[in-house]
Amino acid sequence: MEKTFKIGEKTFVLDEEKAVQAYQEKKVINGHMTKLIQDLQAAGYKGDTLVRRLAAIWYSGDGTLMNNKTKQYYNGREYPSIYDYTMDILARVKRGT
């Protein structure tokens, strides 16, 4: 079901089914991230190390790889190293973005 919203001069059409699905997926991800943060805090991680370890887990599945500077590849496409990714996330956290 689509719903139309008008905000100022702009009109937006929302597919309610897709919006509900996206919201449910976000709740699952938020729950997973909250659990990871709690586990890392319980293990004694804090500050920059906690943020970078969490980012490494999200990106690679392994928090111990946060200092790995090897470029990553998937389907022939190059991606940032785990180190570069975690440093970028840390910088974003510090900027508040």
Question: Concise description?
Answer:
With 97 residues, this protein is α+β, with helices and mostly antiparallel strands. It contains three helices and four strands, in the order E-E-H-H-E-E-H. It is elongated.
Q: How would you sum up this structure, described in words?
A:
By secondary structure, the chain is of the alpha+beta class. The chain has helices at 16-42, 47-60, 82-95, and strands at residues 2-7, 10-15, 72-74, 77-79. The strands form two sheets. Strands 1-2 form a two-stranded antiparallel ribbon. Strands 3-4 form a two-stranded antiparallel sheet. The protein is elongated and about 45 Å long. It starts with a strand and ends with a helix. The model has no long low-confidence stretch (mean pLDDT 94).
Descriptors for this entry?
97 residues; 57% helix; two-stranded antiparallel ribbon; elongated; single chain; 19% strand; alpha+beta; two-stranded antiparallel sheet; 3 helices
Mean pLDDT: 94
Gyration radius from CA atoms, angstroms: 18 Å
Shape, please? elongated
| DSSP summary: helix tally | 3
Number of strands: 4
Order of SSEs: EEHHEEH
Strand content range: 15-25%
The structure class reads alpha+beta
Instruction: Report how far the terminal alpha carbons are from each other.
Output: 33 Å
Poorly predicted ranges: none
Largest sheet: 2 strands, antiparallel
**Helical amount:** 55-70%
Q: Widest sheet: strand order?
A: 1-2
